[in-house]
């Protein structure tokens, strides 16, 4: 039973918001609005990540299927987003609950200044008692800076607002060992601990409907992001949003994922999940030991290979010889510069590159290791 106010992020998918025909499922949206307004009345801080703009746009324009061409999809999303927000505004207004529309692209989370601005804006909205309704800004998003699906977006938003809970509302009541629609032997999974998550193997399937982009695989990926930043994550039935209240009261509903201890370092959360790695650095065993067990900075001497093209201050993955990712960091040099100084002592950097700069390739303050790195 939850006795104190929580920060709660709820993501609802297209398959829950729309009928198989693509028409809006008004009853589900009304139930969702009632549930979230009730949570607000209890003092919880609530954020809604809502899919459905493209699906609603398709219905509005009488399109038979989801667009594949990017420009058409973006145009349809622009049509659907306005209609979707109108419905939300009408329903929330009937319960005297203020809402706000927040449209994000990955760019806002990649750049540190805009990441901080987004953090501050969400904080002010939540302090005002407003429910932010978040979606990807499909109209201007480009492929290389897309979230790809709203499951990932919701996990990153949960990390950004330092949420206590992330609820992923979908078209099944919980996660199963296989697709229960096609496999009668599929077993329900109620609780996933940190240790079990790493070993979890299920038939994740594909998109649940012709109108959506997510499947169970994207929800698992979102749960990994959220739990890694200390957010308890739940997968449950989207057609029954009232389950959220019952889960908060301790009911055994849905699949719950145990979170890692919450980190107070917002900058390191940003490095881990806000940024898109632009390349990889492969490290020798000495460097692996130094950064994983001693918490030191990464020096050029420990780097054995570089892949990708990136600039100074970009994010990269740090890998062992086998290519297993150990962590991520912001580099002080470009990929071409690191190619020149890899395997060399820091004292040689100036003579190799022709100028004097940082002794480290990745400073320890800009380096984030995974919870259980494989060395």
Question: Top keywords for this entry?
Answer:
375 residues; alpha/beta; Carbamate kinase; Archaeosine Trna-guanine Transglycosylase, Chain: A, domain 4; eight-stranded mixed beta sheet
General description of the model:
This protein is α/β, with parallel strands linked by helices. It has 2 domains: 7-268, 3-Layer(aba) Sandwich (Carbamate kinase); 277-369, PUA domain (Archaeosine Trna-guanine Transglycosylase, Chain: A, domain 4), CATH 2.30.130.10. It is built from 14 helices and 15 strands. Helix 3 packs across helix 4 and helix 7 runs parallel beside helix 9 (216-228). The longest helix has 25 residues, at 70-94. 42% of the residues are buried. Residues 203-214 have low confidence and may be disordered.
Brief synopsis:
With 375 residues, the chain is an alpha/beta fold. It has helices spanning 14-17, 26-41, 53-60, 70-94, 106-110, 112-127, 150-160, 194-199, 216-228, 243-248, 266-274, 285-293, 335-341, 349-353, and strands at 7-12, 45-50, 99-104, 131-136, 165-170, 175-176, 188-189, 191-192, 232-237, 255-257, 280-283, 303-307, 315-319, 325-330, 367-369. The chain folds into 2 domains: 7-268, Carbamate kinase (3-Layer(aba) Sandwich), CATH 3.40.1160.10; 277-369, Archaeosine Trna-guanine Transglycosylase, Chain: A, domain 4.
Layout of helices and strands:
Blueprint: E1 7-12, H1 14-17, H2 26-41, E2 45-50, H3 53-60, H4 70-94, E3 99-104, H5 106-110, H6 112-127, E4 131-136, H7 150-160, E5 165-170, E6 175-176, E7 188-189, E8 191-192, H8 194-199, H9 216-228, E9 232-237, H10 243-248, E10 255-257, H11 266-274, E11 280-283, H12 285-293, E12 303-307, E13 315-319, E14 325-330, H13 335-341, H14 349-353, E15 367-369
Parallel strand pairs: 1-2, 1-5, 2-4, 3-4, 5-9, 8-10, 11-13
Antiparallel strand pairs: 6-7, 9-10, 11-12, 13-14, 14-15
